[in-house]
Amino acid sequence: QVQLQQSGPGPVKPSQTLSLTCAVSGDSVSSNSAAWNWIRQSPSRGLEWLGRTYYRSKWYNDYAVSVKSRITINPDTSKNQFSLQLNSVTPEDTAVYYCAREVSWETKFDYWGQGTLVTVSS
């Protein structure tokens, strides 16, 4: 059974960096058949895919255009986890953030983390 366990702070101040981690059990972040995603949901923006990291003989990252200049997703193979960093946050970045595993375009996201509410406020 695959499980994704998120950790990280809830409140963040404007202009700071949002950092979240997703620990994976039951699969490997360096699997050649999976991709590891970050997604967020807010009332104003709905469900928004942010980016992913995946290994296919080397590591690749794909990022949403809307956050491409501010986002980094990094795998940590020693801890079998992956992280999200989002720089220069504003109140518009307030959302519930999820990590999720993707195994194919057909099934898309088959396992999700529990979600983390991140509030950006001074």
From TrEMBL:
Give the UniProt entry's GO cellular component terms.
extracellular region; immunoglobulin complex; plasma membrane
From the UniProt record, give one GO term of the biological process aspect: adaptive immune response
Pfam families for this protein: V-set
Give the record's keywords alphabetically.
Answer: Adaptive immunity, Cell membrane, Disulfide bond, Immunity, Immunoglobulin, Immunoglobulin domain, Membrane, Secreted, Signal
Q: What is known about its subunit structure?
A: Immunoglobulins are composed of two identical heavy chains and two identical light chains; disulfide-linked.
All copies of the Ig-like domain together span: 1-99
The coiled-coil segments of this chain are none
Q: Which PANTHER family match?
A: IMMUNOGLOBULIN HEAVY CHAIN
The organism's place on the tree of life at top rank: Eukaryota
**Stored InterPro entries:** Ig-like_dom, Ig-like_dom_sf, Ig-like_fold, Ig_sub, Ig_V-set, IgHV
The protein's name is: IG c1420_heavy_IGHV6-1_IGHD1-26_IGHJ4
Where in or outside the cell it occurs: the entry states: Cell membrane; Secreted
Q: Do the record's keywords include Signal?
A: yes
